[in-house]
Design a protein that fits this description.
Blueprint lengths: L4 H12 L13 E3 L12 E4 L10 H16 L3 E4 L7 H10 L4 E5 L4 H10 L4 E5 L16 E6 L1 H15 L4 E6 L4 H21 L4 E3 L16 H11 L5 E5 L3 H12 L4 E6 L2 H4 L7 E7 L1 H13 L8 E3 L6 E3 L11 H15 L11
Parallel strand pairs: 2-3, 2-4, 4-5, 5-6, 6-12, 7-8, 7-9, 9-10, 10-11
Antiparallel strand pairs: 1-3, 11-13
Length: 363
């Protein structure tokens, strides 16, 4: 089975970009986008970012693009507001509610508590929560009925990236690090770890994973590019890895900087979006990316709200429904053994068919 052609088409859409007018932290959301002419419906979609911002080349940006696509298709305006810190979440959500939003997209698990609180106080609004189950008391049930969780079993796609990285590595060491130790971060790292171990089992190899041992690992303490993230990346690079997977939005930028300064041939693995597409500066470094199709799932949930067909049941993206995936090799196509890439594609189908099991907190 080949990697989905639909993924390539979606990547091309991301490449076209969108004109992002960014609202200030805690400020009233701005009116953006929408078609000025033609018939419009009485519907206002809105979105609030996590601290990474809408230009993070990752999950905030992809989610934002999903709202923009829906608004353009519906011929309506949308409102967006950025968060710079956790203290912005509740005020930003309240500002969107006060503007009359019909559907509110909250991007990231960090917004879960604030989103649930807002949803409970505004039962007539449809809330779409990216990357969290809205279960803040951990009783196995959503805390608000009008919240639709968008979840992604990225362990499946990361498994493929781990297998690929192990086969590509010449040093016998690959590395990963995350922003903060949350399930939506460690699910990447753990799937990557499982994929490396599976490669070892299938090929009588002994490739080592630096930065995650299946239970604990290396984290920067946040989701911003900066000295802390670079130091973590550098520490992993110094242990001899030749493939590096940063998980946590913009922290990959610090990893890329550390790779460039190392003077060594080290490949980068993207997370969430295809970095080759969203950030051209990575083109000569990105082996592949672990994809979460947040743009499509946010778009579909927003459209269902607009059409009075909102289904608040949780969505879980998998390899089978193409909610997660692995990007093409791009500039690394000639650097990766063809048999290895074929094995990765075969492995994808084996996971879909249940012949190979990838474990995660989502199932």
């Amino acid at each position: 089975m080949t990697i989905s052609t639909r993924k390539r088409a979606l990547a091309a859409l991301v490449a076209t970009g969108v004109a992002v007018a960014l609202a200030g932290c805690g400020a009233a959301p701005e009116d953006d986008g929408g078609n000025a002419g033609g018939e419009t419906i009485d519907f206002l979609p809105c979105i609030v970012s996590d601290a990474g911002g809408f230009d993070d080349k990752s999950f905030n940006q992809l989610s934002f693009e999903g709202v923009v696509q829906a608004a353009d298709e519906l011929g309506v305006e949308y409102k967006n507001v950025e968060s710079n810190s956790e203290t912005d979440f509740a005020p930003n959500l309240e500002s969107l509610v006060s503007q009359g939003c019909n559907a509110v997209v909250s991007v990231g698990f960090a917004l879960s508590a604030a989103t649930v609180e807002s949803a409970l106080a505004n039962e007539g609004i449809d809330y779409i929560l990216v990357d969290d189950a809205a279960d803040n008391d951990f009783d196995g049930e959503k805390d608000a009925e009008n919240v639709k969780p968008l979840l992604y079993d990225t362990a499946q796609a990361a498994f493929l990236a781990g297998y690929l990285s192990a086969g590509y590595s010449e040093t016998g060491k690959v590395g990963t690090y995350g922003g903060m130790e949350f399930p939506t971060v460690t699910i990447f790292m753990d799937g990557f770890y499982q994929g490396v171990n599976y490669y070892n089992e299938q090929n009588d190899a002994a490739v080592e994973v630096v930065g995650w041992d299946g239970k604990s690992g290396s984290f920067t303490g946040g989701f911003e590019a900066g000295p802390e993230a670079k130091t973590v990346a550098q520490n992993i690079i110094d242990q001899g890895v030749d493939v590096l997977l940063p998980v946590g939005g913009p922290i990959y930028q610090s990893g890329l900087q550390a790779i460039k300064e190392s003077g060594r041939d080290i490949a980068l693995i993207g997370a969430d979006a295809d970095l080759f597409v969203t950030d051209p500066t990575t083109a000569d470094f990105v082996l592949t990316s672990i994809l979460k199709d947040m743009k499509l799932s946010v778009y579909e949930a927003t459209m269902s709200s607009a059409n009075d067909e909102f289904d608040a049941e949780a969505y879980v993206g998998t390899l089978e429904n193409e909610g997660v995936g692995i990007a093409e090799l791009h500039n690394f196509e000639d650097k990766v053994d063809a048999e290895l890439w074929t094995a990765v594609q075969d492995l994808q189908q084996q996971i879909i068919d249940g012949e190979v099991t990838v474990t995660s907190y989502l199932g």
